[in-house]
Structures are given as structure tokens and as C-alpha cells.
């Protein structure tokens, strides 16, 4: 059985967080404690698969790290010192 879009995105985010922190992926707290992963997946899929891209990426905090997930599914993790507010980045095509 293959992972669905939500599970795949969660796995990608957890592995990126683990890599950035230099820890085992199993030590990462549940991602659902930081973000609504179903809503994130739906938002990015709707943006990617729709007639126009609504959002190019979403940014949220997981602990002391900033996570950016792009509509193409790429994930980037950057450490930061302050809590950030989840935000969406509109596409340049607006």
C-alpha cells in the first residue's frame, strides 16, 4: 500500500526536520501538534492542480525551526530564534 499525499508530505517534512536537527526521524514530535497537515496538503494540492496557482508556499514553525513547503512539494527547514506565525506566500502570477 502506497502512502497518500498527506502521509507523503508528512514523511518528507519529518525527514527534513530530522536532517536539519541531526536526529532520528522517530524523535520528531507529531507534526499535527504544529500544523494541520490535512489542510496544508489540501491547500498546496489545490494550488498546484488548479487552473491557476494560488499559493507558491506555506511557512510554519515546528519547535525552533521554520518549515517552508512549496506547492511543488519541496520542503526546506531553517532554524529561527522566534516563533513565527503560519503564513502563505502568493504566487507571482497574481
From TrEMBL:
One Pfam family here: HalOD1
Biased composition (Basic and acidic residues): 80-94
Domain named Halobacterial output: residues: 6-79
Cited InterPro entries: HalOD1 (IPR040624)
Protein name, per record: Halobacterial output domain-containing protein
Residue numbers spanned by region Disordered: 73-94
Lineage top rank: taxon: Archaea
Native source species: Halomarina oriensis
